[in-house]
Write a sequence for this structure.
């Protein structure tokens, strides 16, 4: 239970509500115990009273029962409502903390963890905790009070007969404890298997287009059935334990009832006393059964809490230094510099002492084959990772000495694969500046060549674009991403050159929008097609984690080095496959930076 105890800080904020709930739980248990005496009195009046005013007395005690019932209903309602509300508030707070903490974790964490596993922890594991902080808490407090009340009544009526019940409790407690240990281990395995199932579903649903294109439906169904059956097997283990535990407790309880009946008959007990005694014994057994299920719930919740708090215990790899500088207090020029930067993802070094700088307003492109280190360099600028050696500076200050949020507030990005969220076009453009006015959003869309197609939608800027912008074309998604960056108005811009998969018309609109976006900003471009970066102020040619060549497009072609060879290979391949598209790309205005002055 050590992990469930970590929920206590989330409950302390609701101490008054918890106090009221606990009081109601105790009152509920005491009222249940009082019912035994009240029930016996009513039965005595019905079965043993032969006086003329019998019905008057019966009616009197029936009215007492009605009052008792009304009081019990009121107490139980208050107890259940307050407990449920408090538990839900605590879990809402925990869920918010988990999500906020996930936002603070580094990109590396999400690369190591599967998405479905994290989702399972925030859904399945939280559901297990919900059962504890709502239903189980009530049982944990009220059931022992009811058991104690029932035993008190039984002992007051016949202590010899009560010994039979007392002798029943130790084997029941032993069964509960033994089953609880087995359930704890089985539940931990079950939660892990449910995480695997959730991850599998998330992965396959997101890849549904590929699955249908390749026609692998039957193969995927077979794979899912294997995962599904494994989850079923894990689910059945604690169910089997619980299913076996309940009948055993029932058997012990029935045995006790038979013994009580035999002993009561032998001692010639009054029928009403024997009947209420059996009723009290039944209530005690029922509450012991509830305590048995309670043990299962707490064991399951402990396993779930361990997995949830493991997330909260994970420390962010990228975080603010103790005396980090807030960029909101100074003017940012946008001068980026890499100083002998080395970086490793864990196995093998990716960057080997890279040094270069980008002056304010300068456009620098990174070219090279896949895996040469281009994306890694772009990831170091917003501190998605930190260098393993060397440093990256902004206006002469090490990025690690700047407040992370204030640094990222000055950075904008347009990725190759545009990330849009389920919601309206307006919401997606305003993502980087949520408080932007509609006029600002429209102006950003206009400059991104997106206003026309937005207004052509049925609901204009309030049009819902579907998950990941699935209702829009590639060019439209790119222009929304550009509008989002324009609205954010960053000092530093990172572009993952994203026009290679667009048609000629969309490419032209995107390039024109990118040209507006880059005006006056320090821009780092990850180049995929060398023909589109001819007007960059400087091109860095990456090879195996090093800068192999530096220069302008024309200078690098004249050297007949790596850049020249790769450029010629791309040009030849493009002419072979799409000669007319290549001709369009080779025109001076093809690169987004064509609107900028050409490098001298």
């Amino acid at each position: 239970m050590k992990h469930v105890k970590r929920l206590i800080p989330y409950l302390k904020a609701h101490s008054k509500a918890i106090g009221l709930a606990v009081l109601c739980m105790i009152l509920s248990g005491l009222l249940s115990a009082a019912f035994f005496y009240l029930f016996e009195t009513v039965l005595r009046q019905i079965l043993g009273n032969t006086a003329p005013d019998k019905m008057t007395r019966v009616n009197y005690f029936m009215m007492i029962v009605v009052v008792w019932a009304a009081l019990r209903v009121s107490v139980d309602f208050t107890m259940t409502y307050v407990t449920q509300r408090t538990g839900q508030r605590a879990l809402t707070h925990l869920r918010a903390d988990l999500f906020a903490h996930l936002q603070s974790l580094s990109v590396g964490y999400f690369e190591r963890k599967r998405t479905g596993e994290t989702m399972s922890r925030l859904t399945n594991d939280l559901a297990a905790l919900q059962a504890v902080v709502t239903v189980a808490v009530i049982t944990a407090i009220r059931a022992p009070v009811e058991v104690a009340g029932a035993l008190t009544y039984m002992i007051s009526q016949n202590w010899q007969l009560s010994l039979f019940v007392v002798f029943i409790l130790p084997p029941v407690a032993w069964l509960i404890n033994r089953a609880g240990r087995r359930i704890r281990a089985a539940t931990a395995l079950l939660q892990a298997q449910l995480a695997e199932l959730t991850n599998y579903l998330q992965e396959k649903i997101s890849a549904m287009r590929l699955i249908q294109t390749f026609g692998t439906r039957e193969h995927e169904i077979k794979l899912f059935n294997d995962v599904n059956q494994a989850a079923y097997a894990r689910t059945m283990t604690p169910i089997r334990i619980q299913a076996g535990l309940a009948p055993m407790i029932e058997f012990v309880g029935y045995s006790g009832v038979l013994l009580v009946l035999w002993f009561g008959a032998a001692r010639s007990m009054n029928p009403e006393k024997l009947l209420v005694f059996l009723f009290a014994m039944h209530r005690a057994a029922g509450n012991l059964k509830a305590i048995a299920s309670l043990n299962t719930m707490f064991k399951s919740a402990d396993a779930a809490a361990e997995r949830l708090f493991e997330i909260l215990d994970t420390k962010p790899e990228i975080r603010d230094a103790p005396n980090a500088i807030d960029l909101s207090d100074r003017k940012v020029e946008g001068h980026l510099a890499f100083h002998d930067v080395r970086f490793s993802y864990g196995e093998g070094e990716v960057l080997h002492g890279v040094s270069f700088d980008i002056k304010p307003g300068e456009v620098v492109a990174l070219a090279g084959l896949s895996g040469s280190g281009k994306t890694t360099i772009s990831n170091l600028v917003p501190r998605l990772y930190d260098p393993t050696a060397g440093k990256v500076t902004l206006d002469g200050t090490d990025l690690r000495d700047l407040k992370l949020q204030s640094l990222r507030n000055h950075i904008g990005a347009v990725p190759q694969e545009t990330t849009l969220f389920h919601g309206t076009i307006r919401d997606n453009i305003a993502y980087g500046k949520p408080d932007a006015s509609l006029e600002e959003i429209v102006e950003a869309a206009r400059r991104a060549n997106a206003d026309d197609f937005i207004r052509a939608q049925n609901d204009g800027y309030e049009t819902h674009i579907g998950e990941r912008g699935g209702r829009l074309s590639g060019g439209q998604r790119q222009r929304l991403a550009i509008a989002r960056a324009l609205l954010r108005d960053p000092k530093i811009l990172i572009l993952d050159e994203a026009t290679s998969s667009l048609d000629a018309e969309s490419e032209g609109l995107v390039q024109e929008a990118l040209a507006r976006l880059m005006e006056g900003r320090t821009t780092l471009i990850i180049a995929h097609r060398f023909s589109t970066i001819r007007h960059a102020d400087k091109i860095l040619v990456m090879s195996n984690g090093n800068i192999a060549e530096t220069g302008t497009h024309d200078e690098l072609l004249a050297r007949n080095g790596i850049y020249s060879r790769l450029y010629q290979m791309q040009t030849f391949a493009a002419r072979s496959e799409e000669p007319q598209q290549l001709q369009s790309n080779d025109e001076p205005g093809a690169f987004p930076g064509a609107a900028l002055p050409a490098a001298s």
The longest strand covers residues 349-358.
